Each structure stands twice: as C-alpha cells, then as structure tokens.
C-alpha cells in the first residue's frame, strides 16, 4: 500500500506542483492586493488629514487677518482724522454763530457782519444750518472731545474763514474723510491678507518638512546652531524676517492713507463742490455723484480699473524701504541696507507682483462696491433719508425709492451721516464695514490663491537660485519681477481662475 501511494504521488507530482504554484501565486497576489488597498486607504486618510489641517490653518489665518486689521486700523484713522478735522471746523462755525448772536443782541442787527450775509446764499444767511447741528446729530460729545485733542496749538496760525467757506470745508471734509477711510480699509484688508497668507504658506511648508524629516536618534545636547537642521530658517520662516516684512504696513498707515486722502479730496471737490449744504438732494443723485467720484479715483472703464496702480499706496519705493524699517522700529539708525536679506526681498517682490495683478484690482473693486453700498444704500438711506432697510419692508422700500417718488433731504443731513459713519468705518472693534468686505467671496478666493500658489519657490534651493538670478544685472536693477514676470502672472491667472471655479461649484452645490 505504501508503494502504491508512492507510485500515485510520483504519477501526479506535476499536478501537485502546479496546484501548489497556483495556490502560492494566489496567496502572493492576494497579499499584494491587500497591501495596495491598505496603502491606498492610508494615503487617502493622510491626504484627508493633510487637507483638513491645511483648511484649518487657512481659516485660522483669515481670522488672524481680521484681528490684525482691527488692531492697526486706528493708526491710519488717527492720521486721517488729524488731516480732516471736521469737528474742529464745526466748533468754529458754532463759535461764529454765538458771536453773531451776541452782537445782534447787544448792538442790534446793524452790527451783524453785512459782508458775511451778502456773500452767503439766502438759505445760509438765516443761520438755520448752525441751529440744526444738534438736531442733525452732526457731532457727538465724545467726538467733540476727540476733536479738541486733535486741534492744533493756539500758536498755529489759521486763516479766518467766513460761514460759507466753513460750510464748504465741512462738506468736503466730511465726504472726503468717509471715502478715504473706505479706501484705506479696503487696501489694508487686502495688504494684510497678502502678508499673512504669504507667511502662512511658509509656516505650513516649514511645519510639513519638519514633520516629514527623520527623527534624530542622538539624544545628546548640542549647543551648536546648525542651519542644515533648522527647517524653519531653511524655508525662510525666521522670526526676524517675518517681523520686518509685516512692519511694511507702516507705509499705508502713515503715508499711503494720506496720499489716498489727497486723491479722494481732489475728486470730491470737483464733484461735490457746487452743492449747497441747504440744497435738497435725492438718494439717487447722491449715488450718482459717489459713483462719479469713484470713477475719477479708480478709472471709468473696467480696463482702467484693471490697470490702476495701487502699489505706491501700499509699499514704499526701494529707496524708502530702509527708512520704513527704521520708522517702524525694526532697525537702528546706523544699520544700512536692512532689506538686502534674500528672504525679505523675495517676500516684498512677491507682494508687489500680487498688488499689481488683475485679480487684486478685481477684488479691490468688489470690496469698495460692498463698502460704498453699505454707506450710501443702507446707512445714508436709513439715517438721512429715513428709508426703512430692505429687511424691514421690501415693498415699502420699492414704493419709496421707486421712479417718480424722488425722496429728498438736505445736503447737510447727509453730511451729518457721513461724519458719524467715519467713526464706524474706522472702528477698531465691531466694524460692520470690515464684516461686509469679508463677506465678498472673491476675497477668500484671492487669499486661497496667495496661500496655495508658488509652493515650489519656497524650497531653499529654488530660493537660492532665484536670489542669484535676481542679483544679475538685466538692463538695470533686476528683481524677481524681472526674472519671471510673465510666467508668474500666467500662473497667478490660472490659480485665480481655478479658485473662482471652485467657489462657483461650492455655491451651486449649496
């Protein structure tokens, strides 16, 4: 029996070998498939975790942008209020009115300045505007206190103006101040988004590389600072560079806002100059004049707005960069060429590219649209024209502002609202104008483009290569903009298009 069994195995050994081979191959294939499935599942899990981590970092970064804007906005507001002291002019108006009343009571009507009355329009000669200051709510007690702090010293000479000139000054200053604050807030919002998202991108990349690097087995303490092992420094994520880069917002807060104010004031004088403070004006007419001011500042056509250059308001020229760092307390008076750091230079050049890009102009226009709509269509309409907001009674709003009705109010009433809203626009606390701007979805898309683009240039090798290229003379002073301006612009356009497409897809699915 044993020999028969041995004979049977010999006769069927080929079949056994084939069967064993098939079973072995099946086992190996099964294990391979299972390992691939496990690997794919792990990779998907890692990608999901990475995306969630990136999303949380991005959202936290946007919250930091909001807090940063609210923290540094009062600096620009102080400079603008000091340059356009509406409350101080109003105090002078009230002082002149009290003097005229005292003269009229003490010496009769003949002692009142006839030149003042003769030069003033009939509607201004009766002093009705001065009496309406309190009823219009033009100035609060707290604002009076602030204006007294901002008023120049008694030794400062001031040209004596009559009543008409003072009212014209109130008109121009009130409107210009509100408009200037809107432009400053919009530009500061975009600049802060660019700065913090550029730094956030570098922080994220440095943290990813640090986590992906192998852990050191040597537990000994080494006091030597080895740059090769310092991923934070290698990827440009050093505290000193970041601090200097963020300090460049000083230019907008102290210089840029004043340049904007000059441009806005010139446009307001040209458009609103002929208006009489006691003249009746409709909300539609006020909106048309506001749009006309914006066209003179931003451009008439879409192409003009796209080509409008805002960089000079946001960042200083190269010759002023060291001065800005010194003024912001980032460098000593004897320190020379503080911006020669390749990492800082690259951050400033990329910021300049982003500011000069068409997406920046597009988003800025949308932010200004939202802020001016809140000011004119909501605040002025509600407070000056007594029109209920749309949420209160949609049918009533249509009935009031519809064609043929033409609700009117005094220009002085709108000036009162402009003056009060300046404090809301410049508020460093609960700022509804900033909240409205952050509701513009294209702002988040723009921030996402800044945060997620140009990762390849953050590697130390790429940064060194670009810095070396930037130092080569190419027809003058070469910067990173000169090296890859066309490619960077096209990449930004592609990223911007993709970001907007994703936002559109979200809105459709929601």
From TrEMBL:
Gene Ontology terms for molecular function = protein-macromolecule adaptor activity
Asked if the Swiss-Prot or TrEMBL record annotates the protein with the keyword Membrane, the reply is: yes
Bilayer-crossing residues are 16-34
Q: Which GO terms describe its biological process?
A: protein import into peroxisome membrane
The UniProt entry's GO CC annotations, sorted and at most eight, read: peroxisomal membrane
InterPro entries, alphabetically? Peroxin-3
Domain of life the protein comes from: Eukaryota
**UniProt cross-references to Pfam families, sorted A to Z:** Peroxin-3
Q: Does the keyword Kinase apply?
A: no
Q: Which UniProt keywords apply?
A: Membrane, Transmembrane, Transmembrane helix
**Region feature Disordered, mapped onto this chain:** 100-132
PANTHER family cross-referenced by the UniProt entry: PEROXISOMAL BIOGENESIS FACTOR 3 (PTHR28080:SF1)
> What is the recorded name of this protein?
Peroxin-3
To which species is this protein native?
Tothia fuscella
């Amino acid at each position: 029996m044993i020999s028969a069994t041995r004979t049977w195995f010999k006769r069927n050994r080929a079949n056994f070998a084939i069967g064993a081979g098939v079973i072995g191959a099946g086992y190996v294939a099964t294990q391979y498939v299972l390992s691939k499935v496990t690997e794919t599942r792990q990779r998907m899990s890692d990608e999901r975790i990475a995306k969630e981590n990136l999303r949380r970092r991005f959202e936290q970064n946007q919250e930091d942008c909001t807090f940063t804007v609210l923290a540094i906005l009062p600096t620009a507001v102080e400079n603008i209020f000091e340059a356009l002291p509406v409350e101080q002019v109003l105090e002078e108006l009230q002082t002149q009115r009290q003097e005229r009343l005292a003269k009229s009571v003490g010496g009769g009507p003949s002692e009142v300045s006839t030149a003042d009355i003769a030069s003033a329009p009939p509607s201004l000669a009766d002093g009705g505007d001065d009496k309406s200051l309190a009823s219009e709510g033009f100035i609060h007690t707290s604002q009076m206190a602030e204006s007294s702090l901002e008023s120049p010293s008694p030794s400062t000479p001031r040209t004596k103006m009559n009543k008409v000139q003072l009212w014209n000054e109130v008109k121009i200053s009130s409107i210009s101040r509100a408009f200037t604050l809107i432009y400053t807030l919009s530009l500061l919002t975009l600049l802060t988004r660019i700065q913090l998202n550029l730094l956030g991108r570098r922080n994220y990349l440095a943290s990813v590389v640090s986590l992906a690097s192998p852990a050191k087995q040597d537990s000994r303490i080494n006091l030597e600072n080895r740059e090769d092992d310092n991923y934070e420094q290698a990827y440009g994520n050093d505290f000193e560079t970041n601090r200097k880069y963020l300090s460049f917002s000083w230019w907008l807060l102290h210089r840029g806002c004043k340049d904007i104010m000059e441009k806005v004031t010139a446009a307001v004088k040209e458009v609103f100059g002929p208006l009489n403070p006691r003249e009746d004006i409709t909300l539609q007419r006020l909106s048309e004049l506001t749009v006309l001011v914006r066209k003179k500042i931003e451009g008439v056509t879409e192409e003009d707005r796209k080509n409008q250059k805002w960089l000079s308001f946001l960042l200083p020229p190269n010759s002023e960069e060291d001065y800005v760092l010194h003024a912001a307390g980032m460098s000593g008076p004897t320190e020379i060429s503080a911006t020669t750091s390749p990492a800082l230079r690259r951050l400033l050049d990329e910021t300049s590219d982003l500011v000069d890009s068409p997406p920046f102009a597009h988003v800025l226009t949308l932010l200004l649209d939202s802020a001016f709509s809140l000011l004119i269509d909501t605040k002025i309409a509600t407070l000056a024209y007594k029109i209920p907001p749309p949420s209160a009674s949609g049918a009533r709003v249509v009935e009031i502002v519809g064609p043929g009705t033409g609700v009117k109010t005094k220009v002085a009433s709108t000036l009162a609202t402009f003056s009060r809203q300046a404090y809301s626009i410049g508020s460093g606390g609960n700022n509804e104008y900033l909240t409205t701007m952050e509701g513009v979805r294209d702002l988040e898309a723009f921030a996402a483009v800044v945060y997620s683009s140009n990762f390849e240039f953050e590697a130390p090798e790429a940064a060194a290569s670009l810095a070396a290229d930037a130092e080569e003379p190419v027809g003058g002073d070469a910067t990173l903009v000169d090296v890859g301006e066309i490619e960077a612009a096209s990449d930004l356009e592609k990223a911007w298009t993709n970001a907007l497409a994703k936002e559109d897809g979200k809105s459709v699915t929601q």
